[in-house]
Amino acid sequence: MRSRSLATMGRRAVAFALTAAAVFFLLRGCALMPWNRERTSREVRITVSADFGSRVHKDTWTRVEGNATAMRALERVAEVETAYGGGFIQGIDGVRSRYDAVTVGGEKVDWFFYVNGHLADVGAGEYLVNEGDWLVFDYHPWDYSMFTTFLAGCYVEAFRFGYGGERPDHVVVVGTPGDEEEAAEVARILEEEVGRCERASLDRDWSPRTGEYTVVVGVWEEMENNTYLRDSQVNARKAGLLAFFEEGALKVMDGRGGLAGSFSRSAGVVLATGPRLGDGRSVLLVAGCDERGLREAIMSLTEGRPLVGSPVPAWVALEGEGSLPVPMEAR
């Protein structure tokens, strides 16, 4: 009897161990399998704004599991309406697109999706989020330009996290002739926020390389000798720039592309641009109409903190007035 009892106890112990192992596998073991190792938790920041960051409706952090898309992350914090098979954001929290692509009618105001300051080259339903990504959903008109490709206020996240998980290993600070000390000062400011900065000098043939994140520092009179920078300003509408240099003056637009102001002295600008969507060649200009304007632009990187970390395309630094977001109201 005793041996039979021991055998029964042994079978029960084995059964209990197998059951415990099965429960562990179901609850935890799957996560350890090779095909599920990517199902990790990621924390992302989501900002819902309007008029190029002029009004922020929602700004929060949320955590998503596994290979989550930007759409999935947005749905965790807001009510989302989609169209065209779910790939197009029709509305967020009741604010809907005003344009009908089928009838080609209505007002040209829609939702635009940015990742770490870069206008995404895919829809929110296709972009897989990465740890630390800043996802901006901005509701703005596009009758002036369909694409504003890079938000200057997000430059810290752009330079730290890149786009699509491709993080830059350094930032290049390019100085114009005669403004080497100013470029070195900007490099010191950036190194505290984004890490290592390399230095380079601007010449006529310089242009940003794919995967290279660049800050160009100087007075516009010297910058316009460079072909790439000059062309970017001449084609401001095509590039979606709401601030640009024209005939020596800094022109600033309102949200619909009307001229809001023109400055020729003691004005500086922190302006973002990029050749294509999400390809990594993002350029930040820290520029002035003159040396005093350049000084104002550099000071705004440290003293205009509300605009650093705000999803604005650019900001203007005016002597005696501080930093003003772009687009701006008519002056």
3D structure, described in words:
The chain is an alpha+beta fold and 331 residues long. The chain has 2 domains: 41-141, Ferric Hydroxamate Uptake Protein, Chain A, domain 1, CATH 2.170.130; 152-326, 2-Layer Sandwich (Chitobiase, domain 2). The protein is built from 8 helices and 20 strands. It has helices at 2-32, 70-75, 155-161, 180-194, 220-223, 227-234, 236-239, 291-303, and strands at 41-50, 55-65, 80-83, 88-92, 95-96, 99-100, 105-106, 109-115, 118-119, 134-141, 171-175, 197-201, 213-219, 243-246, 249-253, 259-263, 267-273, 283-288, 314-318, 322-326. The strands form 5 sheets. A 7-stranded mixed β-sheet has the order 12-11-13-18-17-19-20. A 5-stranded mixed β-sheet has the order 2-1-10-8-9. A 3-stranded antiparallel β-sheet has the order 3-4-5, with no helix packed on it.
Mean pLDDT: 85
Compressed to H and E, one letter per element, the order equals: HEEHEEEEEEEEHEHEEHHHEEEEEHEE
Beta strand %: 25-35%
Number of strands: 20
* N-C termini distance: 100 Å
What would you report as the Rg, rounded to the nearest angstrom?
25 Å
- CATH top level of the largest domain? Alpha Beta
How large is the count of helical segments? 8
Largest sheet, strands/sense/barrel: 7 strands, mixed
Q: Report low-confidence residues grouped into runs of 5 or more.
A: 1-10, 13-18, 20-37
The computed structural class is alpha+beta
- Identify the overall geometry: globular
In the residues, how many domains can be counted?
Answer: 2
Kindly report the CATH topology of the largest domain. Answer: Chitobiase, domain 2
